[in-house]
Backbone:
């Protein structure tokens, strides 16, 4: 069985969708005409990606499939080669970065409570069903 690795330039840039989704992030747009592409699964890239996952939750979801992505020259220079972008996130106004995280936490909490209520209502309906047919006593 051959374990061949795809050329980095044939893989999509890991940060393309993040640039589109978070225009306020100051991530540069992808540079697709360059000959310089790096694999997102390279050790130096993985370290930076894991640090950025705090600010861009999508990166944590992609952590197990980094070999399917590359990093274009713009993002490699901005994120991996230097620490400036990460430092600017750390130094930025916490309300800008945390508002994204707060929204995600609110959605998660809503979903969590919704499923608890849904579960409890099913238990209630099952109890009514069993009582109706005298399968359990009140």
Residues:
């Amino acid at each position: 069985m051959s374990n061949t690795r795809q050329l980095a330039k044939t893989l999509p840039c890991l940060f393309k969708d993040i640039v589109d989704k978070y225009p306020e992030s100051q991530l540069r747009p992808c540079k697709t005409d360059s000959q310089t592409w790096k694999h997102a699964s390279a050790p130096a890239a993985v370290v930076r990606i894991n640090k950025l996952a705090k600010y861009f939750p999508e990166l944590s979801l992609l952590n197990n499939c980094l070999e399917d992505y590359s990093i274009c020259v713009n993002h490699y220079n901005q994120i991996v080669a230097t620490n400036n972008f990460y430092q600017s996130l750390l130094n930025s106004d916490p309300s800008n970065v945390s508002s994204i995280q707060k929204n995600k936490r609110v959605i998660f909490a809503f979903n969590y409570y919704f499923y608890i209520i849904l579960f409890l209502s099913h238990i209630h309906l099952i109890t009514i069903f069993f009582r109706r047919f005298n399968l359990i006593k009140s």
